[in-house]
Amino acid sequence: MKCRYCGHEIPDGMLYCEECGKEVRIVPDYNPLDDMLTAQVKGAISGENDYSEDDIYESVRNTTAMGRSTGAGRYTSAGRGTGTGRNGAPGNTAGRSAAGRNTAGRNTSGRRNTSGGSLPERERRRRQAERKKALRRKRRQRALIILAVLAVAVIAACFAIYQTSYAGIVNKGYKAIESKEYDKSAQYFQKAIAKNGKKAEAYAGLAKVYTKQDDLDKAESVFLNAIDKQPKNTDIYEACVQFYMDTDQKAEISLLLEDAQDNVRETLAGYIVKGPKFSLDDSETFEDVQELSLSAGNGCTIYYTTDETDPTVKSTKYAEPIQIGEGETVVSAIAVNKKGIPSLPVKKTYTVELPIEDAPAVSPSTGQYESATQIEIKVPEGYEAYYTMDKSDPTTASTKYVGPIDMPEGETIFKAILVNAKGRTSGVTTRNYVLELSQGE
């Protein structure tokens, strides 16, 4: 072989030129196992082939073994000194020398053998890393399973506690209502009340059971009995108010809250409706016809009656002042808010007494008469007159005056009164007549 730098002939087995001192460049033979091994490793890493880890390991092992067996025979100097492995060819000193140097790792063949020998180490590390990942994954799975079991146990325990709690028992009661098991539902609510009598949900549920059975009186008594025992419990009051709203008994709300404790009235102020205000004082007697005005706040509507009955939303709606005529008039009114809740009725009695005429004018005046004479009473408009001639005081049951009356013969005590349209009577006018007719009459 000639030196590529100076052209001097280099003996076989020499690794440098004796003339110029340059190292001999040895070109390795092509080995297809290297490419196959490289392809297998890359494919296994990228997942693009079906080679198993054992296949790759076996290929690496075979390649390494082959490198050991071929020795310097794989790396020749211009095709000479091929040798047959570590033993070399018999009598071929150069081959043995090359093999020795190759074994020392000074040529490219030594580096390839070293590189090939590192592949199993990388594979071992990779497989060890995968085993660690798999172990961590199993640990996570076990932890998740344990957490799931604990969660199920906690949920089951909470559910068991809830089932025997106040809320759980009330919930069972409402479910029984949905299935129309009213007796069973009532038992649940009564059990809940026994467990906690201060909460309103069980009372509302029990009242609903009776409402479903069309027994509103019994449903109402559920709340009223509880309120009697707990007069400051605003929750029960509120549940009762809602019961009245749901069953269209809104008129009962004001009655319920009328004598309630201050804390209850303050909490449920939105359900309290003040009655209408009257413009006239009913403590005085009026001498002429009056106009009564009514008013209410917060946009309430007013309904009233004048026949001494209690007003409802079906009574006369107040729109203009009420005329109060002569006599006694009873006005009763309620205010109804936007929720349809009426106030308690406000009732007042008004008296109007128009001035009455004095005792009626009667003619002729008291005296003695000798000729036939007629007695007359002056009756003002709007009045009637009644009289007697037997010395008794006249009333509306006495003889009604309709025109002049013939004076009786002899002595007569004539008495008369006026009566207005309202039945009020005037004073009594009394006349004493003596009629003695002459013989010619």
Q: What does this entry show, briefly?
A:
This protein is 41% helix and 17% strand.
Structure in words:
This protein starts with 31 loop residues before the first helix and ends in a 6-residue tail after the last strand. It is built from eleven helices and 17 strands. A five-stranded mixed beta sheet has the order 2-9-8-5-6, with no helix packed on it. Strands 11-17-16-13-14 form a five-stranded mixed beta sheet, with no helix packed on it. The protein is 41% helix and 17% strand. It folds into four domains: 33-128, no CATH class; 166-271, Tetratricopeptide repeat domain (Serine Threonine Protein Phosphatase 5, Tetratricopeptide repeat, Alpha Horseshoe), CATH 1.25.40; 277-352, Immunoglobulin-like; 361-435, Sandwich (Immunoglobulin-like), CATH 2.60.40. Helix 1 runs antiparallel to helix 2. Strand 16 and strand 17 (429-435) form a beta hairpin.
Question: What topology emerges from the helices and strands here?
Answer:
Blueprint: H1 32-46, H2 53-70, H3 93-103, H4 108-164, H5 166-178, H6 182-195, H7 201-212, H8 216-229, H9 234-246, H10 251-258, H11 262-267, E1 277-278, E2 285-286, E3 290-292, E4 294-295, E5 301-305, E6 316-317, E7 322-324, E8 327-336, E9 346-352, E10 361-363, E11 367-369, E12 374-378, E13 383-388, E14 399-400, E15 405-406, E16 410-420, E17 429-435
Parallel strand pairs: 2-9, 11-17
Antiparallel strand pairs: 1-4, 3-7, 5-6, 5-8, 8-9, 10-12, 12-15, 13-14, 13-16, 16-17
